[in-house]
């Protein structure tokens, strides 16, 4: 088990290293002089020179990267051009809000997705199953921003149950979290349903029935754990995606998370902040993936073995 | 001495839904399992042996239903029992082991849990008591290092070991009847003998009766007291093992025996029964074996033969015995 986790962490570090190169090079991908783009066309040559020097862009590429990495290790992600505050502070200010939204949204997705998935599989080919399929199809095909606006129209404007996008209280959280939750739940539901149908036809389910076990035990102890193996991967990926900031939803609900931060940074050409958010999202993604892999081996005892044999 | 019946199956008919209406997979099957005996059900794949055994415990999937007939277990008709009542019988009174131990154990639960849960379900034991009983069962079925294996997952065990675990699950609550559906088919030949030995000694030790489903006449010779031969969903011959192997009556039984390899006879080429078992939608109006039968007569084409009582302990579904026995 230790070996397994160590392997995962090592390969995670490798990926983060790759992301750091990418985020470093981001500024060099821009056609033309990035400093001119940042400062706009009215900038004086002195201003351009000063910023070029400030960003270290006048040094050789390798030296720049070395400096970049060295700074990263000291927790220095650079300074936001717009606010003049350290990038890391900007990010960490916004991150808790994104975590709140992501976790709550995912919770809704998991509850809806898994329960509807089990329900649809249990009543396969009945009207219940078909209604669940309709729900899944709608969830996949409706654009999330449209659903967000619809929810705002109905629950904030018409019914006035929830405030319209201006705070970070629990009541402000509900609508954006529901939007994210409903959209994310459809994938979880379809996976759970199909997995359940397949698992229920397995020989070991017949064995469980031949033991005279209660239906509840057969469904939850014998079937669900096997179904969860692929579902957990998807939930993990969704969580990682949401933690990187649900850009559109955060924007629609004016939620002060990473998504709005990244979008703002792009709009105002705040390159250090863009680089910082890209790298940060990469780290979040990799961390969640490692956690999912570990969770995976807890649910499915065969996973760890496969890794040992391969290594 | 008159033995008592543990299981009596009467006119069992099981149908499966299909696009073209219901298909009768098991048709009017009768047999009796006496206390302490091993009854074999023999036949090729697709003869309805497994469906018969699944029907007894009502473990058919949702497309299959028992359309008529009775299954008496100690004089209680199981067909009339609802799902809740059947749950109390499965795993406790009648338990079952299946053909493929590789897929019959749940990959994500420990061996200890999978054996323990059947004890928790039926005997209302908890915690350490369950564990002690499971370890004893593991020892009883011949698994070494029972304490360690208790915590292991199925993928760490060999096929033979997994089948031993399946047997431990089946005998955990001292069942009266054990149904073994091709218990050795998926195993290596050397392991097969060990598993058969284990089943036989457990049967004697625990005073069980056994219904053994197999396509292997070697297993029948080794294990069974009496045999039911099934073909295309029907019983075609019932007799004791000795008579079956020495004086088979039904042309199908004769064909089965001739297609079993004998070392001593030194034959170069093994005989086989031509053709295949018809599927339920292809059953003929006459005898279902007619197309493959070397002794087929005119009447076999048009009229289905009844089951004739050839002597006191042998019955046979064949027109050849029309004048030799009474219709059952």
Can you characterise this structure?
The complex is a heterodimer of chains A (about 300) and B (about 325). Chain A is an all-alpha fold. Chain A folds into 2 domains: about 1-75, no CATH class; about 95-265, MetI-like (MetI-like fold), CATH 1.10.3720. Chain A contains 14 helices and no strands. Chain B has 2 domains: about 5-95 and about 175-260 and about 270-325, Rossmann fold, CATH 3.40.50; about 100-175, no CATH class. Chain B contains 12 helices and 13 strands. Chain B has helices at about 50-55, 85-90, 100-105, 110-125, 125-140, 145-150, 160-170, 190-205, 215-225, 240-245, 250-260, 300; strands spanning about 5-15, 25-35, 40, 65-75, 75, 95, 175-180, 210-215, 225-230, 235-240, 310, 315, 325. In chain B, the strands form 2 sheets. In chain B, strands 6-7-8-3-9-10-12-11-13 form a 9-stranded mixed sheet, with helices on both faces. In chain B, strands 2-1-4-5 form a 4-stranded antiparallel sheet, covered by helices on one side. In chain B, a hairpin with a 2-residue loop joins β4 and β5. The two termini of chain B are about 25 Å apart. The interface of A and B includes residues 203, 213, 221, 226 and 302 of A. Chain A: The complex is composed of two ATP-binding proteins (NikD and NikE), two transmembrane proteins (NikB and NikC) and a solute-binding protein (NikA). Chain A: InterPro entries: BPD_transp_1_N (IPR045621), MetI-like (IPR000515), MetI-like_sf (IPR035906), Opp2B (IPR050045). Chain A: Belongs to the binding-protein-dependent transport system permease family. OppBC subfamily. Chain A: GO terms for molecular function: nickel cation transmembrane transporter activity. Chain A: It is a multi-pass membrane protein.
Features:
heterodimer; A: 311 residues; mainly alpha; MetI-like fold; 2 domains; 14 helices; B: 328 residues; Rossmann fold; 9-stranded mixed sheet; 4-stranded antiparallel sheet; 24% strand; globular
């Amino acid at each position: 088990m230790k070996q397994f986790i160590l392997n995962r962490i090592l390969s995670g570090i490798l990926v983060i290293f790759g992301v750091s190169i990418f985020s470093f090079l981001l500024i060099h991908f821009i056609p033309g002089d990035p400093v001119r783009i940042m400062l706009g066309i009215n900038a004086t040559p002195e201003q351009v020179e000063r910023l070029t020097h400030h960003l270290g862009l006048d040094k050789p590429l390798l030296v720049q990267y070395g400096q970049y990495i060295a700074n990263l290790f000291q927790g220095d992600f650079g300074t936001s051009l717009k606010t003049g505050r350290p990038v890391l502070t900007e990010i960490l200010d916004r991150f808790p809000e994104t975590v709140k939204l992501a976790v709550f949204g995912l919770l809704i997705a998991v509850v809806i997705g898994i329960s509807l998935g089990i329900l649809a599989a249990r009543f396969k080919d009945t009207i219940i199953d078909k209604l669940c399929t309709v729900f899944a199809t709608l969830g996949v095909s409706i654009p999330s921003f449209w659903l967000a606006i619809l929810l705002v129209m109905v629950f904030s404007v018409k019914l006035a149950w929830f405030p319209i996008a201006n705070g970070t209280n629990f009541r402000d959280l509900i609508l954006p979290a529901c939007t994210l939750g409903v959209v994310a739940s459809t994938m979880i539901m379809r996976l759970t349903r199909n997995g359940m149908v397949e698992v229920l036809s397995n020989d070991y389910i017949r064995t469980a029935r031949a033991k005279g076990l209660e239906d509840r035990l057969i469904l939850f102890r014998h079937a669900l754990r096997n179904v969860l193996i692929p579902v957990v991967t998807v939930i993990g990926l969704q969580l990682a995606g949401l933690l990187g900031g649900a850009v559109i939803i955060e924007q629609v609900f004016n939620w002060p998370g990473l998504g709005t931060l990244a979008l703002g940074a792009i709009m105002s050409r705040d390159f250090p902040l863009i680089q910082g958010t890209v790298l940060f999202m990469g780290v979040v993604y990799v961390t969640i993936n490692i956690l999912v892999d570990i969770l995976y081996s807890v649910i499915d005892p065969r996973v760890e073995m496969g890794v040992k044999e391969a290594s | 001495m008159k033995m008592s019946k543990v299981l009596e199956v009467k006119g069992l008919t099981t149908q499966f839904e299909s696009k073209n209406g219901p298909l009768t997979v098991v048709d009017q099957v009768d047999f009796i399992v006496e206390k302490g005996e091993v009854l074999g059900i023999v036949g090729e794949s697709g003869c309805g042996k497994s469906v018969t055994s699944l029907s007894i415990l009502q473990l058919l999937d949702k497309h299959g239903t028992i359309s008529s007939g009775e299954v008496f277990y100690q004089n209680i008709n199981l067909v009339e029992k609802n799902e809740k009542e059947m749950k109390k019988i499965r795993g406790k009174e009648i338990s079952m082991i299946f053909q493929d131990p590789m897929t019959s154990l749940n990959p994500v639960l420990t061996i200890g849990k999978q054996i323990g849960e059947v004890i928790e379900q039926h005997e209302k034991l908890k915690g350490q008591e369950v564990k002690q009983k499971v370890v004893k069962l593991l020892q009883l079925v011949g698994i070494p290092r029972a304490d360690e294996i208790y915590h292991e997952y199925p993928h760490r065990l060999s096929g033979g070991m997994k089948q031993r675990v399946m047997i431990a699950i089946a005998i955990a609550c001292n069942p009266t009847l054990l149904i073994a559906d091709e218990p050795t088919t998926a195993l290596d030949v050397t392991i097969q003998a060990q598993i058969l030995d284990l089943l036989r000694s457990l049967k004697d030790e625990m005073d069980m009766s056994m219904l053994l489903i197999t396509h292997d006449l070697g297993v029948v010779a080794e294990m069974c007291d009496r045999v039911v031969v099934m073909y295309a969903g029907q019983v075609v011959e019932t007799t004791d093992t000795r008579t079956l192997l020495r004086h088979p009556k039904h042309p199908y039984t004769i064909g089965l025996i001739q297609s079993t390899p004998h070392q001593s006879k030194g034959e170069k080429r093994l005989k086989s029964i031509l053709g295949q078992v018809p599927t339920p939608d292809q059953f003929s109006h006459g005898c279902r074996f007619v197309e493959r039968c070397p002794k087929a007569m005119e009447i076999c084409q048009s009229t289905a033969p009844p089951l004739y009582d050839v002597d006191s302990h042998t019955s046979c579904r064949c027109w050849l015995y029309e004048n030799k026995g009474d219709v059952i």
